[in-house]
Structure prediction request, 598 residues.
Amino acid sequence: MKTVVIGVIGADVHAVGNKIIDYVLSENGYNVVNIGVLSTQEDFINAAIETDAKAILVSSLYGHGEMDVRFMKEKCDEAGLGHVKLYVGGNIVVGKQDVSEVEKRFKKMGFDRVYPPGVKIEDALTDLKEDIGI
Amino acid sequence: MKPYLLVDFGSTYTKLTCVDLDREYIIGTSKATTTVETNVLDGYNKALNRLLRDHPEIKEDKISGISACSSAAGGLKMAAIGLVEELTVEAAKRACLGAGAIVNLVFSHHMTKREIKKLEEADIDIILLAGGTNGGNQECLLHNAKRLRDSSIDVPIIIAGNKDASDNIDDIFEDSGKEYYIVANVMPQLKKLDVKETKNRIRRIFIEKIIEAKGIKKAEEQMDEIIMPTPEAVLLASELLSEGFEDDEGYGELMVIDIGGATTDVHTIGEGFPKRTEVIMKGLQEPFAKRTVEGDLGMRYSANALLSLVSNYEFKKYFSDDDKCDHNIKKSLERRKNDIDFIPQTKDEEEFDKAIAKICCDVSMSRHVGHVEVVHTPLGDMYYQTGKDLSDIKYVIGTGGVLISNSDAKIILKQVNKKSNRALELRPNNPSYLIDKSYILSSMGLLSQKHPRIALKLMKQYLL
Ligand code: B12
Prediction:
């Protein structure tokens, strides 16, 4: 069974989506390690090391995601997690912005997959299966 | 009368406490210098003779049982190895401390040959190897297990890591000649702490092996059992006093501070959850009964270490207001380090000892209690709490040489709620202070194994 770490980054308290992601991924055969809301980059990284996670799914709902995830990829590399897939989704930027622009910015920061608002976790399952299997 | 004898083989003294199980009181106590170098029974017999001499009502052949704990010959020394510092390394450390050990060496991630060498050269009694949640990382655990197998280390190794690796661990150590034990993972799930099996295993190794190696085994000829390291006995006593027994209520959340010659131990019993709502808990789950040991805070062996911890300017703040002596701090500390049996003779020397004790108390508190950290977020300030919130602790109990004999013991203990410049430390706000004047805490921990009700009653009577 593959392990994925999920959580909501920064000072973000939106808890409902996080619970749904936990449920959906568990139902689909993943070992989900949920670090919950208000998590720091270090929390994600430490969790991924100890649990041997194959992917980290970062959620950000409150609009400050772009700031909260800066240098996260670099920290993963530093911690020996270069092989771990890094996803981000939710309402990752403030308001409505051009999706492809947003995606470009986050990919430049090292994220493997970037999901704009409206993308549900179910939609990302195929990507996850492709990237890490089940 | 039904006398029951409790023995504590300490680093300096062998201490005896005799309890009458019938009338439920402490008949008497005695002590003599610990004699592990020659024959540990010499010191024990001396103390026993003193006890029998002072209390002729105790008839030696009527003693109904003898239990002992020990911290002699340097106590129980362990090395803790884990993966991530804040997670399995911390979990491993807590398991060792909770079992009454001193953690002399700590390693994280993949052990290097250099680190193995350090471990080989160190004076360690047991090694605890952790790493990975169940279902999580195995690779690091296996790497470290192989490194340990290939080393010249010949002390017992307890493996309390990812359970998935167990079969491979067996393969690694099979035919290696190493003594190893696989127990439940100290961190089975992320941030969840489970130290019970590890603690039990440490205690069993202690009983079966360590006391032999330390020359205390001989004492078993004369007593029923040497059942645990002394600090574990103190922790058990604290737990009993806090939680109570059946209908006899306990004291609730409490703290025990033991300032010794080499270390300062702090035990707290309590959940330590945040007391305010806007606080978010961070880090590994805290043990309900938590023990920390500060190897650089002590009255004698480690007195010198204070020089690097507090500046002269800060040190002076710990002298009483009416202390007019112009202490030579460096010299006074060195003197105590070089003469560990030093007993203050003058008022000035007493004052100086008091200042050391205050520093031990103050600094160990900073390290033991939880901290809040203000995080400035786009949405205003929030608070993260790491460690236990001990602001509602009801009792602070002092034990250990300097505290039990000092008439100003409570003044020393009051350092625990010193708040200046420490607004972010979750120290006890307004506790009551008690002193273990008759030095019975470890004995009561021993007694609690078979007679918890009596141990609780006696603690309530004798802690003043
Ligand atoms: C409920 C709610 C709150 C509640 C949250 C209660 C709680 N503890 O959960 C409260 C009142 C506390 C709240 C506060 C705030 N909120 Co609010 N909140 C909402 C609301 C109405 C619903 C959120 C929700 O639960 N949705 C249901 C779940 C199931 O959906 P979801 O969270 O989006 O998650 C799904 C997807 O996003 C996706 N997903 C999420 N992460 C990831 C990751 C990956 C990798 C993938 C593939 C998919 C994925 O899958 C999830 C499950 O299907 C939304 C508006 C909305 N309709 O979405 C605003 C909204 C999220 N909030 C918003 C804001 C601005 C705030 C505040 C800053 C307001 C303020 N000024 O105080 C604060 C921030 C507080 C904080 N520190 O976090 C904005 C965010 C705007 C932006 N990003 O540009 C929104 C969008 C409202 C709006 N349109 O303005 N909020």
Residues A 11-17, 20-21, 57, 59, 61-63, 87-91, 94-95, 115, 119-121, 124; B 379 surround cobalamin (CB under 6 Å). The CA atoms of residues 43 and 133 of chain A lie 24 Å apart. The first strand of chain A starts at residue 3 and ends at 8.
